[in-house]
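As a warm-up, study this chain.
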Amino acid sequence: MNVQRMSGPAGAGMAVAVCAALAVGLYGCSSAQSPRPGRPATTEPSPALPAGVSPFTGLPSRPGTPVLAVKIDNVPPARPHTGLGAADLVYVERVEAGQSRILAVFSSRQPPTVGPVRSARESDLELLRQFGRPALAYSGSQAALRPLIDAAPLFPLTPGDAPGAYFRGGDRPAPHNLYLRPDRALAAAPAADKARDIGFRFGAAPAGGRDVNQHTVRFPAARFTFTWSDSARRWQVAMDGTPTRTTDGGRVGAATVVVQNVEIRPSKFRDRSGSVSPYTRTVGSGTALVLRDGKAYEARWSRTAPETGTTFTTPAGEPLAFAAGQVWVLLTAAR
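Now compare it with the structure written out below.
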């Protein structure tokens, strides 16, 4: 498969330029040159970001960019991924047999190719409501789930809906070789909603937190480890003990990692082998752990309705600002 090489995470120069463009101190911009871990915030995070700054990453973005969500396979035979480094947001969800699957959200940047693409789940419909009416690219779904997808406020894009947007790669066997061309996918959904505020805030690191060099999140049959890199100013990702790399962009790293504790319960759907599909509920409230700048912060999350965004606060109720850059959100079972 031929894929074009994507550039790495936005550099410090770009982030510094954004901060300079903003009114002095208003937005507390954080970036690859974030304040030293533990440095108290000197400004409150903004209630909204200005035009030209992504509400998903806090970094420069073309205004009015549409939202494309892509379901990405994440079992070992599906790795390495393609295009994942260009995502604004990376959600990790539990699926059947305790495995994980990725829902990657693109808006600021559009890679030439994304994949491998796999099937959607019922939980995706609730999670995506906060984005308005985005485009959702996926390989298909159970027949019983398709009516719910069709009724949801999104633009479903399967290979049948947008055949010119998909192709099979020759690098690995099916079903782990279905790839998406995002530009063609969005051409099939020209009315997809643009990026909007989903509750995230970006700014200087809050006071407190504890020093953390590494943090592991375990699913029943998957493991994610995030290791802080002072030189890259990123949490470098490893899956099941192997450093995560993409075919087009090298090592994967997140500026902010959110471990969001949610309700996960059985749904009424099953996969082909008879395993029950879990349902991940993302409306409500609960606890979270936020990793940024080499520190871990205890947090609370709240989402009052499907169409509203998700806010993250400190235990004292103050907005908890993320570091600017790619955000990973791991949806884990509350205990």
